[in-house]
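Researcher: We're teaching a course module on how sequence relates to structure. For the next exercise, students receive a sequence and then see the predicted structure as C-alpha cells, so they can try to spot secondary structure elements on their own. Here is the exercise chain.
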Amino acid sequence: MEIRTIGIDLGKTVFHLVGVNARGEIVVRKKCSRTQLLRFTSNLRECLVGMEACGGSHFLGRALREQGHDVRLMPAQYVKPYVKTNKNDYIDAEAIAEAVTRPTMRFVPIKTDDQLDLQSLHRVRERWVVRRTAVINQIRGLLLERGITIRKGRQHLEASLPRILEDADNKLSGALRVLLTQLQIEMQYLHRQIEESDQLIIRIASELEPCRRLIAIPGIGPVIATATIAAIGNGAAFKKGRGFAAWLGVVPGEHSTGGKQQLTGTSRRGNKYLRKLFVLGAHTVLLQRTKQSSGLSTWLASLTARKRKQVATVALANKMARMVWAVLFKGEAYRPPLLPQPVTA
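Model: And here is the predicted structure for the students to work with:
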C-alpha cells in the first residue's frame, strides 16, 4: 500500500483521513485523534497532505512539515466543489485529497508562531474595541430614555458621565445610577486594556524591520503594519499587488460573459478586519492630502475631483495595498511618488 496524497478533514479532537495512491484510488480511511494522526503520518514516506485552512490547521501543518511531508492549506470554499453527493467527514476528506492535487488550486501559506501571536493580539484587541463601543452605546441609550442626550464621541461621554451621575436634579433613580457607574467602570477597564495592547503593538512594530518599512507608507501605522505581517507575512502568496488588493476586497467585482466585461461594486472579499484598517488609513490620508508627496498629492487631487469621497477612499486603500505588497515582497524601502521634473534646455 503506497500513499501519495492525504486529505484530512479537521475537527477539534477527531480527525478523518483519506489516503490516495498514485492512480487516485482510495487505499486508506482512518478516524483518529491528533496524537494518533501524527503517529500514523510519521511512519509514512513523504507525501502530499491537504487540509482546509481553519482553526488548528497551521499548527498541524507545521507538525506534518517537520515530518517531511508537503503540506498545503486551502480555503474551504475552494474545496466545496469537489464534494460529491451527500456530505460526511470521509467525503470531505476525499474532496480535500482531490482538490489539493489540482494545479490551479490556490493555497494559504502556513503561518509561523510569531504571525499567530500577532494575529491573536489583534483579535483580542478588536474584541475589546467592539465591547467598549457596545458599552458606550448602551450608556447613551439608557440616558436617552431619561431625556439626557450626549454628543457623539467617546470623549464627550467620558467628560459628561461624571457630571450626570453627580447631578441630583436629573431625576435618575438610585438603581440606574449604580448601573451607570458599573458601566463606566467597565468602559474604563476596556479603555485601559486597549491602550496597553496599543503600546505592545507599537513596541513590536518598532522591533520588526518589515513593519518599520511599512510605517513609512502614508496611512500605514503600527496597527495596520503588524496586522498585515500577521496576515500575509512577506506577501509571497500573491504574484502581484493587485492580488493582495483583491484579497482585501478593495477592487471592483466582475461579472463578465459573452466577451463583455461588466464590473460591479467593491467586492468586499477576504480579510474584513484588515480591509477596515486600510480604509480607515486611507480616510486619514485624504484628510491630509495636501501634506503628502507631490506625486501622491496631485493624484489625490485629481481623484477627489472626479469621484465622491467614499469611492476615492476605497481607491486610495487599493493603492495603499499595492504599495504595502511591493514593500514587503521586494524587501525595499518605500519611495514616495514625485512629480517628474520639467526638462530644461
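Model: If you want an answer key for the exercise: The CA atoms of residues 77 and 285 lie 35 Å apart. The chain is about 55% helix and 10% strand.
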